[in-house]
Sequence to fold (279 residues):
Amino acid sequence: MRTDAIPVHPLPLTAEQAESMLQRQVKKHHIAIILLHWFNAIVWFFELLTGLALISSPLFRVAPRWYISIVDGVFGTRANMLQFHVALGLLWIGVYLVYAIFGFRTYLSKEVLRNEIALDLDDYRWLVVRTRRILGLTREALPPQGIYNAGQKLFAFMVYAMIPLVMVTGVVMAFRLFGTQVVGWAVVLHFCAVGAVVCGLLVHVYMGAVFPEEKPAFFSMITGTVNELYAYRHHFKWWTVIKAEEQAWNQQHADEAVAPAETARPGSSSADREPGCPG
Fold:
């Protein structure tokens, strides 16, 4: 792949080009994002584990009795389970508040609003084509995507919309704020918001951990990088940004290397000239 000419649209690659790009890694995630991702995953795992067991009464339950019995046995009493659930939830809220306060300008306003949830015309077209491809109605190529595809953006938008609702209703339930009626509505909204996120998580986990084409995206949440071939084929618009930044960096350093060489040339400075010679 030539580095001096960035294609406007994805072009067919030779075997040599594909192999070269497969061996080259490009950075996709900062270490802070990776840590936050896995912290979030661990918190949600234990909150769901205890939450499913807590939603139980003689008239209604979500999880089977054997599951509730196992979780009850781990924590000893339901009071201990509830305390663990609330304490972990408050820790999760605290971490997110720190993340939001200190990362608003550097991350949230740029990365989240511009890259993670903002949809453009290619994203809308991607959703239509992807749906038609799943239904077997077309073999049309998917439109080029940025660092996140339209499906990932929709999932991120839903999560960012539901997280504040989960937090607020969780606090209302934990501390029984604003009276019994408000707490009752908080329970319903909390359950619905968590259910929406879980439905999205099932697709998210399947696409990242099971779907073969998206395996590089899954491992990028461990290594922080993806191979360039994956970026080229699945996130072409992001790939063009990477190549443009590389070209700008190379050009800048080439200019910096040329400048000292020119000033060091004999006769290039006035100090090297003979007295009386014109400048």
